[in-house]
Amino acid sequence: MSLHIEPSSPDPIYRQIVGQVARMVAAGQCPPGTRLPSVREVAAAHAVNPMTVSKAYAQLEAQGLLERQRGKGMVVAAQAPASRSIRDRLQALAPALEEVARQAGQLGLEEGPVIEALRQRMQNENREQ
Known about the structure:
Strand content: 5-15%
Low-confidence stretches: none
Mean pLDDT: 89
Distance between the termini: 10 Å
Radius of gyration: 16 Å
Helix content: 55-70%
CATH architecture of the largest domain: Orthogonal Bundle
CATH topology of the largest domain: Arc Repressor Mutant, subunit A
Oligomer: single chain
CATH superfamily of the largest domain: Winged helix-like DNA-binding domain superfamily/Winged helix DNA-binding domain
Strand order of the largest sheet: 1-2
Shape: globular
């Protein structure tokens, strides 16, 4: 599991972690039983406060996406609601798309260049995985 933390993002770090884990579970990238990195591992890898990571994991546990297993740490819950349909995954992406559309409009950008920039970023992201 690979998390991407943006310290300069207006979105708090714990929300970035919650959102990314939830999307990976929804997409089936983290099936039930998948072990998550420990709080210490995430905190050290991203130079964030361990309490921030702990808060994110606790929120995901409260949502039923994660569960604590003795000796293993946090794992994707056996009953984690995986919404694998394209419609459900696009719905999870809607807030980010709305923000991109709003910012593009504020910058006076046309649809074509914005879509091309998104296409290039997605191609780069797919190459990195």
